[in-house]
Amino acid sequence: MIYVNYHSHSTYCDGKGSLEDYVTEALKQNLTVLGFSSHAPLPFPNDWTMKKSALKAYLTEAAQLKKKYRDRIELYTGLEIDYISGLMAPSDPFYASLDLDFIIGSVHVLKDTSTGEYPGIDYTDKDMDQLLAGSFDGDSRRLVRTYYSRVRSMIQKGGFTFLGHMDVVKKTNINSKYFDEHEPWYYEEILHTLDAVQSAGIMMEVNTGNSRWQGIESIYPSPWIIKLCREREIPLVLNSDAHLPGRLTVHFDRALEILKDAGYRETMVLREGEWRPEKLE
Ligand SMILES: [Zn+2]
Ligand SMILES: [Zn+2]
After folding, report:
1. Distance 122 CA to ligand 1 centre (A)
2. N or C: where does the chain have the smaller number of CB atoms within 10 Å of the terminal CB?
């Protein structure tokens, strides 16, 4: 079993550690492949994505590291790009012009129509509460349904390599604070979204979720959704969404058990410039 990870955040965005710190740590943990995936700049001020002015330096530094370490590890340069309705999408032609090795398509924010701000759906209760009050009349079901409908719009538009943390809207839903994952309407949203993934023929990631691990429910998507992915033969990529170099393979062992339980025998890896299935041991 080789460990790979295509989802890592450095000091270019909201992570800790330089790109080279990640490479050093990846070598220490015997990774054969590492992907950089800073949050792409947003068209409004925020404290969690790369600044537009830093994009060139990011691409240059990543290219230099690729050369420097080419005999020791395969490095790939990507971006995690947001889909924000009416503002930006991974399918925007600008991103294709960057000649990236891979792109993660993710939805992290929705618009608070009362203030024009974009609070995170995967950040804090405060952001969720702001969104609920500002745009959804306190109706968390409507918020969650809007999240999934945005994910489906992003899938339809395409422009990315794999879907990031499909059900990340549950991040603050500790003890079902905002919604119940077992309600029929939620199941329906998941099925519709998996339909979209399947008909687009794209890969999804299994994301072991950085710092807020609260047991198996903190894996994205939830184990019951991974089972539905298996039924549909949706190819999966295993990632940790590391925001610290030391968390490059965090909870991978547990995630592999969940994948095997669901019937997966392989995950997708990008090696020697191509995506291909790699057997799970
Ligand atoms: Zn993300
Ligand atoms: Zn991420």
Report:
1. 8
2. C
Domains, the chain, in order of start with CATH, read 4-279 (3.20.20.140)
At 7, list the tokens.
């989802």
Helix (H) or strand (E) holding 231: helix 223-231
Name the nearest CA neighbour of 266 among 281, 252, 280.
Answer: 280
Q: Note the pLDDT of residue 279.
A: 95
| Tokens linked to 56 | 């060139």
102, 189, 176, 84: which is closest to 144 by C-alpha? 189
Q: What is the pLDDT of residue 278?
A: 96
CA of 8 to the centre of ligand 2 (A): 6
- The 10s digit of each residue's pLDDT in 144-200 is 999 999 999 999 999 999 999 999 999 999 899 999 999 999 999 999 999 999 999
Local confidence band at 96 (pLDDT 50, 70, 90 cut-offs) = very high
